[in-house]
Amino acid sequence: MMDGKDMKPPEGKKFYGSVTVSERGQVVIPADARKDFDIGTGDKLLVFGDMQMGLWIATADVLNKYMAGSLEFFRNIESQMKKSAED
């Protein structure tokens, strides 16, 4: 029988715990998460929302890495489409 303690999250995924929203709408990011993502005092975080999926909070560095990969992917698609049209 599995009791939660034996369950391991997927590779690269973590659960840091829960947070409570203050009267001013503030939350405290758990220390382990700040350490893992190198988030320090004064750092800016980007907050995105999807009304079905919820909130996503990211550092600008993470977003830049994600977007760079996506941009390269779409450029490759565009290049392939141009080649197909020329043939």
Overview in brief:
By secondary structure, this protein is of the alpha+beta class. The chain has helices spanning 31-36, 60-86; strands spanning 45-50, 54-59. The chain contains two helices and two strands, in the order H-E-E-H.
Explain this structure to me?
The protein is α+β, with helices and mostly antiparallel strands. The chain has a domain at 44-86. The chain contains two helices and two strands. The protein has a two-stranded antiparallel ribbon with strand order 1-2. A hairpin with a 3-residue loop joins β1 (45-50) and β2 (54-59). The longest helix is centred in the last third of the chain and has 27 residues, at 60-86. The protein is elongated, with a radius of gyration of 19 Å. The mean pLDDT is 86.
Q: Note the main sheet.
A: 2 strands, antiparallel
Radius of gyration: 19 Å
Lateral arrangement of strands in the main beta sheet: 1-2
What is the CA–CA distance across the termini?
A: 60 Å
Taking pLDDT < 50 over at least 5 consecutive residues as the criterion, the unreliable ranges are none
Number of strands: 2
The DSSP helix count reads: 2
Backbone structural class: alpha+beta
Listing every helix as H and every strand as E from the N terminus to the C terminus, the arrangement reads HEEH
Helix content: 25-40%
Report the portion of residues in β strands. Answer: 5-15%
Mean pLDDT, to the nearest integer, reads 86
Shape: elongated
